[in-house]
Amino acid sequence: MAPRILVFKYGVGNVFSVKAALERAGALADIKDSLEDIEDYDALVLPGVGTMPAAMRRLTAWRGKVERHLEKRKPLLGICLGLQLLFEESEELGPTPGLGLLPGRIEKLRAKPLPHIGWNLVEPMRPSELLKGLEKPFYAYYIHSYAYKGVEKPYVKAHTRVGGEVFAAVVEKPPLYATQFHPERSGRTGASILSRFVEIAGGRGLED
Amino acid sequence: MVAVRVIPCLDVAGGRVVKGVKFQRLREKGDPVELAARYEELGADELVLLDVTATIEDRGPLYNLVRNVASAISIPFTVGGGVRNLYDVEKLLDSGADKVSINTAAVKNPRLVEEASREFGSQSIVVAIDAKREPGGWRVYVASGKVPTGLDAIAWARRAVELGAGELLVTSIDRDGTREGYDVELTRAIAEAVEAPVIASGGAGRLEHFYEAYRAGATGLLAAGLFHDSILTPMEVKEYLASRGVEVRLW
Fold this sequence. Notes:
Chain A is an alpha/beta fold and about 210 residues long. Helix content of chain A is about 20%, strand content about 35%.
């Protein structure tokens, strides 16, 4: 059975590509603007659309549902802003509180010009379920101005450099998975990362 | 460092990919969905799809076509042609475009660029400028090069970025389809005038042309006919750029 994945649309922007990419990776994906039916799904995706305050306004009401989803060890994949939402707080238009599922603060990049847009190198640092088979540096597509810079933390599995700074490219603390880049727009490598997440969502990936 | 991008462009008319010379004499080159998938396979870093008859036919974008192309690829995707208002922009983003390119409507109503970039973020708004060399500089043309505006291309580029455009797609009408090389002076003049990334377009015919446009300050290098006619592949262009020390995505 193909795993069912809910893509939560909490802002304006392209989430269609995330759905299409998950389907290419073998999942059944639905775009929803609420988490009402999250119990019916094997995994949750928080995509990269909108701003931190706008997304949190929509997410706060569903915090309990997200927590229960994770208690059942069902996976969550955060993409771009979706990664940032997992942390305690963000500088974006704020400070704005996040979901606080991981300790730490999201900060603005110092690189000029911002946003950091385009293909940049991701350097894997620590063993990762999501990056299984991707030990060497690879290019991925970025479009963001904020990031998590605590790259020494054990849950940061890969990092990227821009404008003399290093930030988290992949964050993982099962059942939480997140990428600052857009795997749905990162060509073959991005597709393999999403396939890996679909495997994990189908319960065929995690070795306990 | 962000890698320099090689970007195939699909000009679409009547649902098919077409290509002309100096925006005239369009000839059919294939199916947009098939070509999009093939270019990703051949190393494209991004794709641009321009509906070149939408404005002339006074209609909106082809959302179904956009959805079909977006479903077939996993690289960034910019869509333009027939974008008239905020609704068109939102609907294109919902159909799988990562960026929306605005041309004629931006000239007619510059506030659209301002509102769209505020609503959807500068990163998703591209202003496309079609320019022709005339005495004293370059002038902007709209409606697929059919209508002169009298606007100076450099001044318009500056204004578009001030209004919130996150990127400029600059096409030389004189060089379009000629394979004589990009209008490097136009590329340089605009890249020097703005901080936003500039995509050079129009005239690519040989490997050296891509390097010249990169040297002139473009970070996106667009080509169409050259790829449609299988003269070069995006990966061959990137291997050449890498051999000249340019950072590109080779794997």
